[in-house]
Amino acid sequence: MNRASVFVAMAFLGGIAIGYFARGAVGTLQQRYMHKADLAAIEKAHQEDIEATLTQDRKRLMDLWAEDAVSFNPGGPPAVGKQAIEAQHEKFRAQYPDLKVFSYTPRYKSIQVEDGLACEWFEREAKYKLSPESPLVRWHANGLQVLKRQSDGSWKGLMVFVSQ
After folding, report:
1. How many CB atoms lie within 10 A of CB 88?
2. DSSP 8-state code for residue 57
3. pLDDT along the chain (164 residues), means of 10
4. Is the dihedral of CA 38, 44, 48, 54 positive or negative?
5. Which residues contact 154 (CB under 8 A, 6 or more apart)?
6. How far is the first Cα of the chain from the last one, in angstroms, to the nearest whole number?
7. Which of these, 6, 10, 152, 156, is most buried using a 10 Å CB contact count?
8. CATH topology for 3-163?
9. How much is the pLDDT for 21?
């Protein structure tokens, strides 16, 4: 083999190696960017949850849920589907039309994001009154939440398991 052939072979193999590692690096960078974008969108969903809960804006509260969502709350059957969750909310609001939320603080832990789903543990605390005359209630709950990435990149609740 002459020197030119050796040089061409080395350059060719070097190009393959650079391409292989560059593709892996670009893929890793894309994954990091997507992960950061997902985390930012999930944080936005968390903020929307806080605002909707504090204002008790019915439309905004329902906009937090995916169409195929399931909500598991203590003391009752699961609400399967966004319409069932909305019916559950409406029944509660009919019982307590003057509900006033004074504070709501969720804390999320151990978020895992993969393939368009996110899973996270949470603790939530709230202070509210069921009516102007009722005493202030302090509420604390733990649970697990699964979020689903929507086609527009936003995240909505898919499953929520609450334990008080």
Report:
1. 16
2. -
3. 52 52 49 77 96 96 96 90 95 95 95 93 96 96 95 93 82
4. positive
5. 41, 44, 45
6. 77
7. 156
8. Nuclear Transport Factor 2; Chain: A, (3.10.450)
9. 55
